[in-house]
Design goal:
It is a single chain. This protein is mainly alpha-helical. The chain folds into two domains: 66 residues, Orthogonal Bundle (Arc Repressor Mutant, subunit A), CATH 1.10.10.10; 137 residues, Up-down Bundle (Four Helix Bundle (Hemerythrin (Met), subunit A)). It is 69% helix and 5% strand. It contains nine helices and three strands, in the order H-E-H-H-E-E-H-H-H-H-H-H. Strands 1-3-2 form a three-stranded antiparallel β-sheet. Strand 2 and strand 3 form a beta hairpin.
């Protein structure tokens, strides 16, 4: 296994740990700790941590280690503005070309969200909502946009875990899936402006969870 592959493995493991709440805000991670836990050498661990720092996920503190970055309200506003511009633009661009097969795939994702919601399966529900946005964006057939959105969604998830984890029982968490179902119906009804406005509302639902 190459160093690059090992670096990717470490990167994914740390990111999963943050998303799953294993590493909380202000948690300190060390190269030694991760080397022992993941059974890899120090070089790929350092490379992965440096990349996570460059993406704003971690912050390097000399003689201490790497700290999980705390999100601010300004960070959240910036992320949501970026997602709104990117996702609504994608939908506007791809709307006329969405096929019945693609629409059925999107609808299946939404129904899975409601299943996970009824089971109180937090992790799978959140992954389902992310899958909805990625599936919808994939209809634009632009790999660069898809990659940027995936990164923004991962950031949204980390911010959600930091700020709103204790609100899971709140009924407001049903709103994204309800909006997703309405977006599907708007696309089926050829209501371009309605679908885009619903998507805008869906993305910015994050602001109302406080």
């Amino acid at each position: 296994m190459t160093s690059g592959t090992l670096k990717d493995k470490v990167y994914a493991a740390v990111l999963r740990g943050i998303i799953a709440g294993e590493y909380n805000v202000d948690s300190v991670l060390s190269e030694k700790q991760l080397t022992e836990k993941l059974q890899v050498s120090k070089s790929p661990v350092r490379e992965a941590l440096v990349e996570l720092c460059s993406q704003g996920v971690l912050r390097s503190v000399p003689r201490l280690g790497y700290i999980v970055v705390r999100y601010t309200d300004r960070n959240i506003r910036d992320i949501l503005q970026f997602r709104t511009m990117l996702e609504c633009g994608c939908l506007a661009e791809s709307f006329d070309g969405i096929t019945p097969t693609q629409l059925c795939r999107l609808e299946s994702v939404v129904e899975s969200e409601f299943l996970f919601l009824s089971q109180k399966d937090t992790k799978d529900y959140w992954n389902g909502t992310l899958n909805f946005h990625l599936t919808l964006a994939s209809f634009a057939e632009n790999e660069f946009i898809y990659g940027q959105l995936r990164q923004a969604l991962n950031t949204s998830m980390r911010a959600y875990l930091q700020l709103y984890w204790d609100r899971w029982q709140d009924s407001s968490f049903m709103e994204p899936s309800i909006l997703h179902r309405q977006i599907v119906e708007s696309i089926r009804g050829h209501d371009r402006d309605g679908a885009i406005e619903l998507l805008r509302r869906d993305i910015n639902t994050f602001r109302t969870l406080k």
